[in-house]
Design goal:
Blueprint: H1 11-16, E1 25-31, H2 38-51, E2 56-60, H3 68-71, H4 80-84, H5 90-93, E3 95-96, E4 101-105, H6 107-112, H7 118-129, E5 137-141, H8 150-155, E6 159-164, H9 168-185, E7 189-197, H10 200-217, E8 221-229, H11 232-239, H12 244-247, H13 252-265, H14 277-287
Parallel strand pairs: 1-5, 1-6, 2-4, 2-5, 6-7, 7-8
Antiparallel strand pairs: 3-4
Helix pairs in contact: 2-13, 7-14
Length: 297
Amino acid sequence: MTKFLHNQATGLSDLVSLQTNTSARVITVTGGTKGVGKTTVSVNLASALARSGKRVLLIDENACPNNISSRLGLKARFDLMHVINQDKKLDQVILRGPENIFVLSALRGIHALPKLDVTDQQKLIKCFSQLTESIDVILIDAAMGGETHVLPLSLASEQVLVVVSGSKTSLMGAYALIKMMSKEYAKKHFLIFVNKTDTGLASQTVFEDFSRVARTYLSVSLEFAGFTQRDEKINQASRLCLPVLDAFPISQAGDNFKHLAENVLYSSCKDYFDGAVDGFMQRLIHKSHLSMANYTA
């Protein structure tokens, strides 16, 4: 089984040696309910972006075993909380995954952000400033359930990719999430990815029906980002701890995720922020007091 068990201490040193850049696209991947496949989508979107030449930092809010690290065959000994507590440097907690993919486990750290004083906030922002010239895309896999910080993560992001399936529960949960973010926090733009359907036509129908309801009752802009059909190759790649494009580069599922990457990069469905990575962390800290306590799918 091919795995990418790289030493964490080498992650950032590899990262900063790459060609410099001064901006990063920030995308939060979420869903209205568990089981829609958002972590699978996050891993494979990151792979497709990396194959297009983008350097991707995956920020993982999920707990093991259903998180990004385990999906890529990585072992995260340290996480963002170690950086916040000044026990470790950022270069010691970032894992290197497949080519051009870097992973930061952040579950505990994101939960701690609202409690930071001004000094600790400034230290954390400064830590992330060292990534400004080394990352093209920040991709956040937001956790589901009552403890999620999907709200501040989404509001700090340029784009929110909502993963849905054709199930009633999935669509109702996604609608409730979009409604809350739009009505309470003025988030108006969302990308929709339809996962686990039988055909491309069925995916398009799911999106059109969902979009029609949203346009009728919510003042939001929804954009169809793509779809995947039920495909055993996705499950097999996951068992191999590989993105599907690495395990099965010539496959329908691989093509679907390449199309998703293209649609995300060239989408007009985004908010515009200062592109620096430290700017994202500053926004996230500022938004971190917002709670999902009143959100019920």
